[in-house]
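User: I'm designing a mutation panel for Helix-turn-helix transcriptional regulator and want to avoid disrupting the core. Could you give me a predicted structure to guide residue selection? Please restate the sequence first so the numbering is unambiguous.

Assistant: Good idea. Sequence first, for numbering, then the predicted structure tokens:
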Amino acid sequence: MPLDLDETIKALSHPVRREILGWLKDPASQFPDQQHSIEHGVCAGQIDQRCGLSQSTVSAHLATLQRAGLISSQKIGQWHFFKRNEDAIQAFLKQLSATL
């Protein structure tokens, strides 16, 4: 699926979403208290705690990042885990570089 440059830029326009992406770049050091294996990503509850915002606000930020293709999610049991989509991030950077 081709990358929507405008959608990605919009997703990155909010500082909290950029911060979440930064944390997910090195989840083991950014979320050391996570009880579950980091291989599936970071549990939504951990991101909620780290953000210090309401669960619904954090969910909206995560949904925006996911719609833009910058993160992926996986549900395991009752938990939702999020991780960066490195291929999409690299494609965005390449397309942005070619455009500007």
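For picking mutation sites, this is relevant: The chain has six helices and three strands. The helical segments are 5-12, 15-25, 27-30, 44-51, 55-67, 86-99.
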